[in-house]
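Co-fold these.
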Amino acid sequence: MSALTNTSSIISQLLELLGADKVSTNTSVCDAHSHGEAYHGANMPEAVIFAESTQDVSAVLKLCHAHRVPVVAFGAGTSVEGHVTPPAHSISLDLSRMVDILEVNSPDLDCRVQAGITRQALNTFLRDTGLFFPVDPGGEATLGGMCATRASGTAAVRYGTMKENVLGLTVVMANGEVIQTGGRVRKSSTGYDLTSLFIGSEGTLGIITEVQLRLHGVPEQISAAVCQFDRLDDAVTTATEIIQMGIPIARVELLDDVQMEACIAFSSLTEFQPLTTLFFEFAGAPAAVSEQIALTESIALDNNGRSFSWADTQDERNRLWKARHNAYWAIKAKSTGKQVISTDCIVPISLLTDLITGVRQDIEQSGLYAAILGHVGDGNFHTLIVTEDTQEGYQQALDLDRKIVARALALGGSCSGEHGVGLGKLEFLETEHGSGALSVMRAVKAAFDPHNILNPGKLLPAGPVFEG
Amino acid sequence: MSALTNTSSIISQLLELLGADKVSTNTSVCDAHSHGEAYHGANMPEAVIFAESTQDVSAVLKLCHAHRVPVVAFGAGTSVEGHVTPPAHSISLDLSRMVDILEVNSPDLDCRVQAGITRQALNTFLRDTGLFFPVDPGGEATLGGMCATRASGTAAVRYGTMKENVLGLTVVMANGEVIQTGGRVRKSSTGYDLTSLFIGSEGTLGIITEVQLRLHGVPEQISAAVCQFDRLDDAVTTATEIIQMGIPIARVELLDDVQMEACIAFSSLTEFQPLTTLFFEFAGAPAAVSEQIALTESIALDNNGRSFSWADTQDERNRLWKARHNAYWAIKAKSTGKQVISTDCIVPISLLTDLITGVRQDIEQSGLYAAILGHVGDGNFHTLIVTEDTQEGYQQALDLDRKIVARALALGGSCSGEHGVGLGKLEFLETEHGSGALSVMRAVKAAFDPHNILNPGKLLPAGPVFEG
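Predicted complex below.
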């Protein structure tokens, strides 16, 4: 029986099992699940299942496992690397109805949520508790999706990524078995770290249905500032020295002159020049914050930074960070009808100036319009590349991306700091990890999903499997 | 051919391959490798191999793999759970000659070391760089052993455990293949997190030969203080509130009255009473440290803490922390000729007072002499149980340990915060993780080491293997 026949045959069984409310073959629903926010093409799923519980997910996987039907999990669809694009003849398993907050343990700074809730919805719920969840990727992503891609964002320099902020998971395995990983304790030395193995596994090892998260206390004081530089290397050196001094800065974001020009126009930041810019956030107890600010200001001035502009009120702070978060839309707005493609490289911070300088040369040679911005405290940056919205334009962007990735990998970096592999970064994995590590990853995949029904074709390029 | 015959037959091949300097069947050498610092019995290896390079380890594993001979890695032998006790007819693979510091990247706060170097030797080397490695288990452990057991210590409350402080590894797989995991970047979203999978795998998935570590800047100011309490719950509440307030305390250690009495005698801490005590360390920039101290002092006083005693000079600080680190020896000194056995439970911090109160009742019922101390900021504590140095005494301690672990697991805790499973905690794994997660762990083990030659019998109790 072909994969297509298998998939069609189980849709009626899924309808019987879950009811019509949770199973859709409607064209517009399938279309909405045919792609993420990526440029990796689209593919229609045979059906979309709206799971409402771990039991639903388990039932779907049991059936798909028995019939060897591929399954791809879908949350908010904010992936930019093609993670949620359905494989051929597959089911898209939508978890966006699983939004329950199952427990909040304020004294222990942890909570448990279903995988379909977004980080914004969680933080809205937590608003009166004095706690918050700090990991903030650009999109309105779900916590499950953030786990699956090992997401981070602007606050990772202070609070870490999903890797450091997930204590445990409920996972449905390929055959429908439900397992628990980790727990509520802050550390443990018992057994293999399955939680970390599922974090970043992009739906290829199991479907995450519940997440135990670390929370953090809302800092007593938060201050934000902006400093502009005539030279890129001065800005990067400033960020580097802040990290080296151990200043526990809450955020330090770089926008190059191209990006800043677009942000000034899009977000009316008329008080600034189109120059290389650092956005800072300081958070903590008042004296500590004052001290961090004084140290940071002196480092910036020593590196030829212009004077600090302060965002004293929460409104001003929100305006600044909204402008930063709208960086993509600022570039998009300057490029009507064109496509904007983001790279996601990361290197050790000491190599960042060299890398970005090289990337600027690559951009110039390409003749394309492109801006650079990033989480400079982590050594992670994005190049937003604008091209015609055609296959040829896409190829042009891809050519530039390949040059940028090659530079990063030659410096011991990674092709993705936070977006993940999906389909978009598959070609770089062997250069980055080596054939040995990849063969071991394939052995994990084969052990967890021997029939290759979990998001097949993502994360791991084809190749030999470690045999031990 | 029996396992014994296999093992004997390869010793001559190992001699030929590596030379007499690296292969020993000497009785006293084998005896020194027959156990850790544990009470789990001893077993002589057939031979001890002193590896001097990743290539040596690879050569040994290739041969052992071909002949199905079990191998157990050995570092400093400081395991307290029987990790390094050789399985039947096995080779002990000693990495303590692999002590090279391969690179120190000061601007990026990272370094690469061979697995056999101890944390103390590394920190001695780093002394003039302004950097240090913070993870500090009690023993003079090797970094490889600390990776293998996912070790932590008194500084984990601020800096995290080995999980948060290892960026990448070189690992020799069961068949001798050498792979690289992770790298130098501070985060990455590409591929399965093999680094975290090997951290805590206790030599059962591969042999770690090199470690890329995160380093931290030595704080500008460090202050230590001691505060005593009449009641245990007040001390625990103080620690809890410090964590909840987000005070970035460097260390907060609890010693109960029994432990404190022993430490006063052993370390001449005559200025203190035999009462429940918290040891604090504050670290950072000066104003931040002053602020942390003021906040902590007010929390302690609100919870009926007596006045703070300050250790102002480095000598006084060293004296205090040495007394804390000698807690085991303080108990040992009061118990000449007896054995001291340590438990290692961890629970969410809000449950710690309940748990310790219960444990105190268990101790009283047992009639044994036992002290409680621990990394209270993480919810992790040790009970040092003293019994006669006989099989019967060992059983008494084990009975008490089982009661303590049962209490911790009933509260959603873990049977080991930092010592690992080894042989000592095997019996608790199924209750802690559930049969589902254990079967998945066994699938990882089967995929990485299908012939079960890597430290067989440790970490995972026998049982079904997930089949996907």
